[in-house]
Specification:
By secondary structure, the protein is mostly beta strands. It is 8% helix and 39% strand.
Length: 444
């Protein structure tokens, strides 16, 4: 495609239409543009479609399908005065690039009765409504745009905190941040969704995809978009943002200097550069001095190649935590070749031998990962780098690996800690928030 570089008044062909060239505004610091204000370079067509089915296609079939969708998009998308314009029909526009942890800026302007949205990681969606249309008040259009409308009923983030839409004819500005599945949405300077987990629309039992494209959904009326910018977030920044959310509710378990407040195999662990590290060739349980009932624990961990450790949940203080405690949550370099033949219930985040966690959400070996574990009654939830990889009620587990029972799984209190297995796995920024114990049953 020919692009003229002689200034504002050149003409450029967009889908066969001659339009005046305008230049995108300068990207904010740290961001790069996703739309150049002139053509659709970097974008392709796609309707509402399950990304898993696209991935399962052969390279040839996938390319043919994308070409078909992109040809359809050409009939409905234009560029006018540096704005992406859709007539309310046809395939949506999807970035060629995929994103994991990122921040996204975009402006839009639409018309009455239009219905639109922004797919994140190929998944619907940050909703855009006609908030004045009584015909959709029954499905919460009057609450305004910006919610994760395809989340389950009652789930955090489904509806925005406030109605922040500007009147029709005015531009609206979104700022969207995703850390794993943890999604935060601002609109016109107001916080609408705060660190809510965006559900996987295509498989409610699985986490949101680790990476995926940004997709502009349009149907029902004209919509215009401009000032599209993205900033990819580093693992260190992502960890800081995840751990910083409502951190005032958490109490530090590790002071970063020594093992004050800890008990157990103290001689087998050391503090190095602000982290607790299991000494190579050593192991055993390093446990808190205090027992806990229900709690949320946050920490960062770093695995060496092939590294193996675990989190002891409600440990009695002795015995094998995989069996004597409620469970041992695996901390494992799951993708290392030496672990290729494990039982699914042995990989990272799993309740060892009982319930398998979802895989594919660990950072590269040698990078710090953020993990949050919620222990509430018999339910254990594990979030890894912002994605929910385990949500299990251990009271309902009846099948065990190697048919070996777990007598400790019904414990209601115990110590939290690490279950070293001879590898120099490191932990830092360990903090805990106690949850209220379940109410006592009244005597009959």
């Amino acid at each position: 495609m020919f692009t003229c570089r002689l200034g504002m008044f050149c003409l450029v062909s967009i889908f066969g239409v001659l339009l005046p060239v305008t230049h995108a505004a300068e990207a904010p610091e740290g961001f790069r543009p996703l739309f150049n204000g002139q053509d659709l370079d970097g974008w392709q067509g796609r309707p509402h479609f399950d990304p898993r089915k696209l991935a399962e296609m052969s390279d040839q079939d996938r390319a043919a399908k994308i070409s078909e969708w992109t040809e359809d998009a050409k009939n409905h998308w234009t560029v006018e005065n540096g704005e992406l314009v859709n007539d309310g029909h046809g395939a949506y526009l999807v970035t060629n690039d995929e994103f994991g942890d990122y921040e996204f800026l975009i402006d839009y302007k639409t018309v009455p009765r239009a219905d639109s949205g922004i797919y994140l990681k190929g998944t619907p969606q940050v909703q855009i409504w006609d908030y004045t249309d009584p015909g959709k008040f029954g499905i919460d259009s009057d609450r305004g745009s910006g919610g994760l409308w395809n989340n389950s009923a009652g789930a955090p983030g489904k509806n925005p905190f406030v109605l922040a839409d500007n009147p029709f004819g005015e531009w609206n500005t979104f700022r969207i941040r995703q850390l794993g599945a943890r999604t935060t949405v601002w609109m016109n300077g107001q916080l609408l969704v705060d660190n809510a987990i965006m559900e996987n629309y295509f498989d409610r039992k699985a986490p949101l995809f680790a990476k995926g494209p940004i997709e502009l959904q349009t149907h029902g009326g004209e919509i215009r978009w401009k000032n599209l910018y993205v900033r990819e977030i580093t693992p260190d920044e992502a960890n800081q943002l995840l751990s910083g959310h409502q951190q005032q509710a958490f109490q530090r378990l590790f002071n970063g200097k020594d093992l004050t407040g800890w008990q157990g195999a103290l001689e087998n662990y050391e503090v190095v550069d602000g982290a607790i590290r299991c000494k190579a060739g050593h192991g055993g349980q390093l446990l808190t001095e205090k027992e806990y009932n229900n709690f949320v624990v946050r920490l960062e961990f770093k695995l060496p190649a092939g590294g193996n450790n675990g989190l002891a949940i409600r440990s009695p203080g002795d015995g094998d935590p995989a069996y004597a405690a409620v469970c041992e949550l695996q901390v494992l370099d799951s993708e290392h070749e030496k672990y290729a033949g494990l039982d699914a219930r042995q990989y990272h985040g799993s309740a060892y031998g009982m319930v398998a966690a979802h895989r594919g959400f660990l950072r590269k070996t040698g990078q710090w990962n953020f993990q949050q574990v919620t222990v509430d009654g018999s339910t254990i939830k594990v979030e890894l780098n912002g994605s929910l990889i385990l949500d299990a009620d251990l009271s309902k587990v009846t099948e065990f690996m190697a048919e070996r029972p777990h007598p400790g799984k019904d414990r209601t209190s115990g110590f939290f800690g690490f279950a070293g297995h001879n590898d120099p796995v490191e932990f830092r920024n360990v903090s805990i928030k106690e949850l209220a114990p379940p109410p006592k049953k009244k005597a009959e």
